[in-house]
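Please, structure for the following, as tokens.
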Amino acid sequence: MKKLEQLLYNSDHKPYPVYKNLKGTYFFPEYSISVEHVQGDPFAAPSSLSIKISANVHGFPDGFLNTKHRRIALQDYLLRNFHKELKKYDHKISGSGKSGLISISSCNQEILERSALSFDRTDKSLTVRFNIGFPAAGRTTLALELKKILFDFIPLCISKSLKYTATDIKELNKWINLSNDQKAIREQLKDLNLIAFVANGSILPRKSGVDDRPMQNAVKFTSSKEDEVTLNLPNNRSIKGLGIKEGITLIVGGGYHGKSTLLKALERGVYDHIPGDGREYVITEDSAMKLRAEDGRSIIQTDISAFICDLPNGKNTMNFNTEDASGSTSQAASTVEAILSGAHTLLIDEDTSATNFLVRDALMHKVISAAEEPIIPFITRMQQLYTERRISTILVAGSCGTFFNVSDNILQMKNYNPINITFKAKETALNFHNDITAPNELPNFYDNRIPIHNNLVADSKKVKIRGQGTNSVSINHECVELRFVEQLTDNEQTNLLGALLRILEEKYFNGKNNLMTCLNSVYNDLEKKGFIVANYSGMIPGNYAMIRFQELYAMICRYRGLNLK
């Protein structure tokens, strides 16, 4: 601490590069602070710092840290509080460029494991990673102003938000208890053969298209009586709500009655949500994958023959390639990729799907024979996917009743709440003839592609990874389009995907193992060792958020730079 103080005195009113001398670790009475990266000038990206606090100083009990779900909930709670404290001092110091900026990850409605704040899994120490814009007047250092930040502002933020003795225990217990509830519900989904649960009283609509907070005065969700289940919660409590069973669930109803809103809540239900979000008790099985059409995406050596075959140009759909997929071929590829990634539930909205991929009605069958149509509609495969592979489907449809015949459970959304109309819909459908039979058995889904090194990362010192929100990530000049991978909720997940892509290219894509082996290896390491696996610069950045394997596989399948043996 004394050394850092002296360095700051010696650096005041000097050329900006003098700040580089601050790089290193300094020990304060209750924590250490590391200056890991120093910006090149006041207009560059701010400097990166980290704080490490030992377990005996932060004082959080082992009971909060000894299980993964509670540890992540605690990390999320503390990060939000530390962010709130830092904001009080952001830009209190003025100067050129980013002078005085103090920032850390800003969390959304979902609870994600983040590199910005984490507990060590061995010694239980707490590490926080954040950014400071080192102050300057022009390109002259204002090191004594930086001293105020490091010696006055940061210690106050730590003492108010990162110690158990300063924590609002009642509020923290709310976070932890909710995490315990969510864990209990996820475990019961498997036991009860459910793929999703929506609690009575949930608030599903969002404030706006750009604000993911709950809509005020929205209609609260109430399950249909036929589908209502009671789940057990810790401490002899229980909760009631809609239980969606394995198999084929069809969600229908008039426009603006809440069909897509329910599906959107279900697709986000693969993540836990914070107290007060309205979707805290909307829980979907972890592997569920949202599918949609993606005109223009690339498809590289993928077997889509389960859905598309006998193309008039003779193109091989068992090893299909295109740089510019149509809506139907893109959705066929995404479906196969979801299955290969281990998804047990497919989430589909008619509004964002290719109609000819989903269904062909009886009249079209009569006019255009099956022999003249290369697309095998998804409707003919839905039951087959479930009975043969135990892959369920939740489908939203508003314009086509053909789905009634193949659905196990049919919910009508009426005034934002579901009514079970399975019997009525199936009885009515008996009067309509629809030939919905799978034309052949399902092929074996496998990925035997063998990736090799891409020259994009031949010189590791010149590799640049850039994220564009959740829309895309680029490695040097190669952009991977992700805006239709709709369960990515945070730009920090995209940052992690970009880092993993680089690691895969540099260390795993060596022409020896197939693609799935490479991805499983890096993802298993990520789960076991944490974000250090994605480290390529000598430090762990504070802007990573955890992803599922499904998003990693989806990203690689959209990577146009993928080189195969």
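DSSP finds 14 helices and 29 strands in the chain. The CA atoms of residues 99 and 134 lie 5 Å apart.
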